[in-house]
Amino acid sequence: SCSYQRFVNCYRCFYKLQPQLTRSIYDQFISQLQASIKEEIQEVKNEGNLEGLFSSLDKIVEEAKDREEPAWRPSGIPEQDVRSAMVPYFLKHRSHLRRLLKEKEEENRKVAESVLMGRDRIAELQQLIQARQQAWQ
């Protein structure tokens, strides 16, 4: 194999003396290296709880299969990411506040009408009182 040839090139003097031993050393080195790499990967998985994270990621992917709109992805530009997340919230909040404002304006209009009607009624009663007072005198 190509990697064995590189190994031989590095240890050419040793290979010339004992080629079988060089092959044995290479095979042992490769097997130990593979075992060490597998062990490291398992350690990283255990430390980071990657199995749980991968299974939760699989769940998220399964849940998202039926969605039609694409999932949100960061663009790498913080201002744009914040804007894309916050603008819909603020627009919704603004429409809610506008609805509340219209309700309060309507309520204030009704109160103002009732105040004007009350003033008109007071004016009528004052005129009635004056008319009765004049008629009585």
TrEMBL record:
Record has Transmembrane as a keyword: no
Superkingdom in the source lineage: Eukaryota
Keywords on record: Cell cycle, Cell division, Centromere, Chromosome, Kinetochore, Mitosis, Nucleus
Cleavable signal peptide: none
Gene Ontology CC: MIS12/MIND type complex; nucleus
Predominant localisation class: nucleus
GO terms classed as biological process: cell division; chromosome segregation
This protein's record includes keyword DNA damage: no
InterPro entries (alphabetical): PMF1/Nnf1 (IPR007128)
Name of one Pfam family that matches: Nnf1
Compartment(s) where it occurs, according to its Swiss-Prot or TrEMBL record: Chromosome, Centromere, Kinetochore; Nucleus
Protein name in UniProt: PMF1 factor
Native source organism of the sequence: Brachypodius melanocephalos (black-headed bulbul)
Gene symbol of the encoding locus: Pmf1
